Amino acid sequence: MDGIEYELVVYGYIRLIENEQMLYSNIADGLYQEILQFYPKLRKFELYDRNLFYLEDDGTKIKAIKRKECHGFLIYAQCFQNGGYKKGIHSWSIQYSSDIPSSCFKKIGIISCKNTDLLKMEDVDCDIFMKKNKIFYHLYPKNIRFWTNGQIVTLKLNCDDNALEFYHPDFTKEIVKCSIERDQSWYFVARLCAKRKWCDFNVIDDCFYTPI
Fold first, then answer.
1. One CATH from 2.40.10.340, 3.90.1210.10, 3.30.420.10, 2.60.120.920 for 41-204
2. How many CA atoms lie within 13 A of 3 on its CB side?
3. What pTM does this model have?
4. What are the mean pLDDT values of the chain's consecutive 10-residue runs (212 residues total)?
């Protein structure tokens, strides 16, 4: 569901309530906007290579298909602002749900464009392509051993202050804050291993949200 579809769902629900309650005057547009600001936003997995991954639980869980494909591939989360996040504060939380410890790719972060060609590129080729085409990105953690079974990593994207924070509740010393490039549109992404036994991730309710 993109930004426009998301707003239509909220508008449609409010219109349904108007009809059920026989409200004969239209609800003010300001109230629509207020509801949109506080309406829960669970960013599901959205864009991924369907030859490598599949979704469960209405798009909140992602798993890998193949047994031997041990490379990292990009996966986009849903975006609720048309054209990417340019203002406001947003977050995305993912839990590593596999029972098998993994030392392979499991990173989350942001990227400055939505490009479906990136989905099929292995990690090294993808990095080369992004650098060559001046696509900005930030991924965490650098040491993937800090993200193990059952643990949750959260990103907090502050577009207004051009800052990105990574929260890891089980390794408080590993909380990282960095500056991000100005005047960019951002999308949440994950880079996950495409090996079946090491790919089992869930989207968790956002820990941070500030209306824009």
1. 2.60.120.920
2. 9
3. 0.78
4. 53 63 57 55 89 92 84 92 89 85 81 95 94 94 73 90 85 76 95 84 67 34
